[in-house]
Design brief:
Largest sheet: 24 strands, antiparallel, barrel
Radius of gyration: 27 Å
Structural class: mainly beta
Shape: globular
Distance between the termini: 35 Å
Strand content: over 45%
Oligomer: single chain
């Protein structure tokens, strides 16, 4: 990767000089913008949660922060992000500890060509074989360091290409640390390419991608049981022998994808199919099986009505730039497997979130949003909106390659799976219905019901046990009353009922807002139905927020409930904690 690093230095000079050469003053017409955020926590002992001085160790204070700065001048731009983790807050990977610049780049546009040198994020299609992205709340960042280019080759044709290595905390790149990623992608807007389609109401876009990972793989030995048969007289005796194998792991793993997007008025259809070559890795137990995935969405909307449906089928699609990498949240992912489950805003509805299973998953999601017209008997003066949605995730069907070789055996092809198969192991179910109604100018309310099935072992431990299915019923009532155009009071009540896991919960939030500056809130989540009487804990919180211009400070004191925090099917574990949290945000 040394050559790529040197090349980016030269590119920095090459791209920087035109701005100096063709501008009488480099500062003339320039613009600097950015934003910053600091999250800090002071931790307290809490005997109810089992938090003592010994468990806190040195983690009595945690701080995560970043500052983004962007400079633009005509066709030239430069970007830099400084990050600091001193110490990383509880729940974030301790390998983030430190201060540095994990992200910087320079960008220059000349005619139909745009070039970026340094760090960048990129996505091909829906991300099935390529997506670089960052999510601060998850502590996730897989940005690429290298070179990225976009070229409008002709009218309606956009070509992208990249080469780079991915971020891995603060670890510098070496040939033994992780692989080099290369990729090319094309979008073809048929309505722009062909004159006869210029004015057509139906818009069609085709796309295709190819991505390759090169990794200097280690030599690896694995042991597994081998079955033997010995004939003794007229009888056959079976016995097991432990055999050690040395595997030939691929240095190059390629993948490709093709997609189509069709739209007409309120109708839209998108579908993408992807394949990945043999990629034995820590996530799939080092099996030699090509990966497959298909992701499709269809939607329709008109005034008062919206319909959305998506489906996903994944078969062995973990794709990382280091084959031995595993963890939570998953790092060094080259690709992204879109979620077909809903992201919930209420805490109890989000208590059992879904984490995408790259080794095999069949998923469906559907949603209908209907607004009963204003001034009708059911709609009232302002109308009533009803949202009904359903999500499903299941295993795929896996069959033995041959008798005597268990499914997912290391060093084998793993298993056979019919395309778009539906397995018999439930991973997740989520049915919910929500009503929103504005009664008058001062009062509005939302009411929602959720019915969820959650496979605790698969999602959290990746071990299936039918006894670990959690069945949860959740109810929410959310009401807001406006005293004046500035002052409002919001009351939120939630209940969660389940016979599994930790039993029943109740929660209430009272929030008072004085727009546009002040907000005050008190919250409590009570695990009143826990079978262990000592664990019937109140997770209380008090919060104050103040905003002035583009600056905001938020202060909260209380308890944080343990669980999974998920965004788009990617999750990290958040442990119990008690203490003071301060968040500062600013933009300029």
């Amino acid at each position: 990767m040394k050559n790529i690093y040197i090349s980016s230095k030269f590119l920095l000079i090459i791209l920087f000089l035109p701005s100096l050469t063709f501008s009488q003053n480099f500062l003339e017409g320039s613009k600097v913008s950015g934003n910053t955020q600091i999250d800090a926590q002071v931790y307290s002992q809490d005997s109810k949660l089992g938090i003592t001085d010994s468990t806190l160790n040195y983690k009595k204070f945690g701080m995560n922060g970043f500052t983004n700065v962007r400079y633009t001048n005509g066709n030239f731009s430069a970007y830099m992000r400084v990050e600091g983790y001193l110490n990383p807050m509880v729940g974030y990977d301790p390998r983030y500890e430190g201060v540095g610049v994990p992200y910087w780049n320079v960008n220059y546009k000349i005619g139909n060509l745009e070039m970026t040198a340094g760090h960048f994020y990129e996505q091909f299609g829906s991300g099935l074989i390529m997506r670089g992205w960052e999510e601060w709340t998850l502590g996730y960042d897989n940005n690429f360091y290298g070179f990225n280019a976009k070229f409008a080759a002709a009218k309606g044709v956009m070509i992208k290409g990249l080469v780079g290595v991915q971020r891995y905390f603060w670890e510098p790149y070496t040939p033994d640390s992780r692989g080099i990623v290369k990729g090319v992608d094309g979008d073809f807007y048929l309505n722009d390419m062909f004159k006869g389609m210029n004015n057509a109401k139906t818009k069609i876009t085709l796309g295709g991608s190819f991505v390759s990972k090169y990794e200097k793989v280690p030599t690896m030995n694995f042991s597994r049981d081998s079955a033997y048969s010995v004939i003794v007289g007229t009888d056959t005796t079976n016995w097991i022998k432990k055999t050690t194998y040395r595997y030939n792991l691929p240095h190059n793993v390629g993948s490709w994808a093709a997609r189509i997007n069709i739209s007409n008025g309120g109708f839209s259809f998108y579908s993408e199919y992807a394949e990945k070559g043999n990629d034995p890795n820590a996530t799939n137990n080092y099996i030699y099986l090509k990966g497959q995935a298909i992701y499709s969405t269809i939607s329709y909307s008109r005034k008062g009505l919206g319909i959305y449906f998506s489906s996903k089928w994944i078969n062995n699609m973990s794709y990382k730039s280091r084959l031995t990498e595993s963890g939570n949240p998953p790092m060094l992912d080259i690709n992204y497997l879109p979620a077909t489950t809903k992201v919930h805003q209420y805490s109890f509805a989000a208590m059992y979130p879904y984490a995408t299973q790259p080794n095999g998953e069949f998923g469906l999601q559907g949603e209908v949003v209907y607004t009963i017209p204003k001034k009708s008997k059911l709609g009232g003066k302002y109308g009533t909106t009803i949202t009904v949605s359903y999500s499903l995730a299941n295993s795929i069907k896996k069959e033995q390659i041959s008798t005597g070789i268990p499914i997912d055996s290391t060093g084998t092809k793993g298993y056979k799976s019919p395309f778009y198969s539906f397995g018999d192991i439930p991973y997740y179910r989520d049915f919910d219905v929500k009503f929103e109604h504005k009664f008058n100018k001062t009062f509005k309310a939302k009411a929602a019901y959720y019915n969820q099935t959650y496979n605790k072992h698969v999602i959290e431990d990746e071990i299936y046990d039918k006894d670990e299915l959690v069945y949860a019923h959740i109810g929410v009532l959310d009401m807001t009353y406006k005293f004046t155009w500035k002052k409002s009071l919001r009351l939120e009540a939630q209940g969660l009922w389940t016979k599994e896991d930790k039993g029943n919960w109740a929660a209430m939030t009272l929030e008072y807002n004085i727009a546009p500056k002040w907000s005050f809130a008190i919250m409590d989540e009570w695990n009143y139905g826990n079978d262990n009487v000592d664990m019937r804990i109140h997770y209380y919180n008090v919060a104050i927020g103040y905003t002035k211009g583009t600056n905001r400070i938020a202060v909260r004191y209380g308890r944080q409930r343990e669980g999974l925090l998920c965004v788009g099917g990617v999750c990290r574990y958040v442990p119990n904690s008690t203490g003071l949290t301060i968040t500062l945000t600013s933009s300029f």
